[in-house]
Amino acid sequence: MKTLTLVRHAHAEGGINAADLDRALSDRGHAEARSQCHLFHLPDDALLLISPARRTMETAEHWLKKQPHLKSETVKSLYNADCETILEVIQDHGDCEHVVVFAHNPGISEVYHYLTNEWMAFEPCTVAIMDMKGCEKMMEKGKAITLRLQFPTNR
After folding, report:
1. What are phi and psi of 43, to 5 degrees?
2. What would the pLDDT profile of 30-78 be if each residue is shown by its tens digit?
3. pTM for the model
4. Which run of H or E residues covers position 72?
5. Is 61 exposed, middle or buried (0-12, 13-18, 19+ CB in 10 A)?
6. For residue 155, is it within any domain?
7. What domain range includes position 89?
8. Alpha helix stretches (DSSP H) within the chain
């Protein structure tokens, strides 16, 4: 893998009347996702790996509407996954040139920290693109280089 992109899902509606897995994006979340996807153009060979949570899938749908030819896969184990689980999912797809992971906190922030040695708590709809070419072996701690870190513009 040459490039890894991490995306935390956008703002979701409150969870009072819905199971956590079924929480949809709020209006603010849809605006964040629209805004973020228009700032990025993913390469044609990018693979989107998406948590099955509704809010995560709705966030990814904005990228897929913009670039409908992109391949995507729903990965059950990404739902509220910890750092180790997310890294395993990424490693399972290491033969892809560009992997994009749509997942949740705290796992997504922990993966970023592990790969870059930089701590940053991902706010909803934060996007980080990392160069993975410097890693001698897949998912080597602290070896990824941050190419771009983008917070939602309407925060």
Report:
1. -65, 155
2. 999 999 999 999 999 999 999 999 999 999 999 999 999 999 999 999 9
3. 0.95
4. strand 71-74
5. middle
6. no
7. 3-150
8. 27-39, 54-66, 83-92, 107-116
